[in-house]
Amino acid sequence: MQASTTAAADSTKMEGFWSSWKCQAMELLYWRDLKQTGLLFGSVLLLLFSLTQFSVVSVVAYLALAALSATISFRVYKSVLQAVQKTDEGHPFKSYLEVEISLSHDQMQRYAENVQRYINSTLRELRRLFLVQDLVDSLKFAVLMWLLTYVGALFNGLTLLIMAVVSMFSMPVVYEKYQAQIDQYLGLVKTHVNSVVGKIQEKIPGAKRKAE
């Protein structure tokens, strides 16, 4: 009974944590706090640009050295300051050292189940596309892969990741500001695509979906 109550409490706590995390992520992407978003955006871009010039091992090592230099210097500074002022404030990072960061067995099991669900769903979708369960969807997937061959020839993975980060921090704000116009154009594009797909379904035998 006690274990069940503890598991329920952990589940509620984690749900609240993820809900809070999502809200904070949305605030960052929509630039609600210019200072925080700018700092995060600049840091991520700096990291990605560093990876274009140095290896992953070098970047991780330099970041670790920079963090250790900052924390060790602060620890030594606080120790000297306490010795001079003859105070006993304790470890400067005591509040952070006491924060619980471990995951319970139930939390790990829940995360594993979510990952398993996503993997199974992806495998089923790939099987459906490659074995042509629906001809139109498989053709769309083939066109997408064909377009990606050109994208891959023009950009490497890091360049695409940088573009994705820039889009992630810019598109939400642009959409929020010009939502009506963007929705209008997207509706026109969707209508045109559906029209083209409908014509293809009529001309290719077996391409037309069966009525539900």
Question: What do these coordinates show?
Answer:
- By secondary structure, the chain is an all-alpha fold.
- The chain contains 8 helices and no strands.
- It has helices spanning 2-29, 34-53, 56-85, 94-97, 105-130, 135-154, 157-177, 179-203.
- α2 runs antiparallel to α7.
- It is elongated and about 85 Å long.
- The model has no long low-confidence stretch (mean pLDDT 83).
Q: How would you describe this structure in keywords?
A:
single chain, 212 residues, mainly alpha, 8 helices, 82% helix, 0% strand
Structure described in brief:
It is found in: Endoplasmic reticulum membrane. The chain has 212 residues and is mostly helical.
Biggest sheet character: none
Number of helices: 8
Tally of strands: 0
Helix content: over 70%
Mean pLDDT: 83
Query: Which residues sit in consecutive blocks of at least 5 with pLDDT less than 50?
Result: none
**Helix/strand order, N-terminal first:** HHHHHHHH
Please state the overall shape, judged from the principal axes of the Cα atoms: elongated
Rg, alpha carbons: 26 Å
What distance separates the N and C termini?
47 Å
Strand content: under 5%
Structural class: mainly alpha
SSE topology sketch:
Layout (H helix, E strand, L loop, with lengths): L1 H28 L4 H20 L2 H30 L8 H4 L7 H26 L4 H20 L2 H21 L1 H25 L9
Helix pairs in contact: 2-7
